[in-house]
């Protein structure tokens, strides 16, 4: 993919990945063709959406299940969000978890 399209992808979807991995993301997108890059971005999760899930139904573990942490999500569901404590902590951590999961998926792609 040419550099202009890589730059467009990074500008549009860079917020879905950790800032410290910017060069890694840019290199990965440059190695892909446009269809592969589009498919990868479509499979990535939007951190804002995950944060909203966490705020409203995070005590049920849906946020963790949505990002791919099924085991943690089920555990969170069974404990009602860790009696509210885990839910509160996840409000601050879930966007970083989402970005790391998106980066893992991009690297594996």
Question: Would you give an account of this structure?
Answer:
This protein has eight helices and no strands. It starts with a helix and ends with a helix. The mean pLDDT is 87. α1 crosses α2 (22-31). With 109 residues, it is an all-alpha fold. 78% of the residues lie in helices and 0% in strands.
Compile the SSE list and pairings.
Layout: H1 3-13, H2 22-31, H3 34-43, H4 47-57, H5 62-67, H6 70-78, H7 80-83, H8 85-108
Helix pairs in contact: 1-2, 4-8
Shape: elongated
Radius of gyration: 15 Å
Written as H for each helix and E for each strand, in order along the chain, the element string is HHHHHHHH
Question: What class would the helix/strand composition place it in?
Answer: mainly alpha
Q: With helices defined by DSSP (H or I, 4 residues minimum), what is the helix count?
A: 8
Main beta-sheet annotation: none
Mean pLDDT: 87
Poorly predicted ranges = none
**Alpha-carbon distance between the two ends:** 16 Å
Q: Strand portion, in percent?
A: under 5%
Helical percentage: over 70%
Total strand segments: 0
